[in-house]
Amino acid sequence: MMIRRAFYSVLFPAAVLLPAWLLVGSAVFGGGAWETLGVLLASIVLFVALAAIAGIVYARPGVRASKRVSWIDVAVLTVIAASAITLGLNTAASTAASVVLIVAVIAGFWAAVWQFFVEARKRVQDAFASFEVPQTTPGAGFRPNQVPAGIRNDGEYIVIETSRDTH
Known about the structure:
The chain is built from six helices and no strands. The chain is mostly helical and 167 residues long. It has one domain. Helix 2 runs antiparallel to helix 3 (33-59), helix 3 (33-59) runs parallel beside helix 6 and helix 5 runs antiparallel to helix 6. This is MFS transporter.
């Protein structure tokens, strides 16, 4: 529970810090000029992607109410963060880390969209279910000439008749 809350609290800061780490890591750990330019462009794309993922995750009412992300979000964001940190270190595993980062960002985006629509569908179904009148309530769904079983018909009653006379 604490892990999911921690990931909730770093959703938007991670969208800034991970691309910044890529730039700093490229400069510190010996990237050339063309590589730094490529990392700059990749950092911009990573920022936009992480901001979109964070926005979609935050848009889910269940996430906002509980202030916790789902375990799927935790797994995806962990893979994204680990691959971005590895890529920023500029090691021999940078090529594999870049592929993993691209796949994880795409998977994270679609996982966030999928979870958003699943939660929205459930909320809409719950809303429609609250408007439905169950057929077990007295008076629901009977014709005027029919008396439901739960209503007694042995007392005094008033009959109001209307006429269609236009005179």
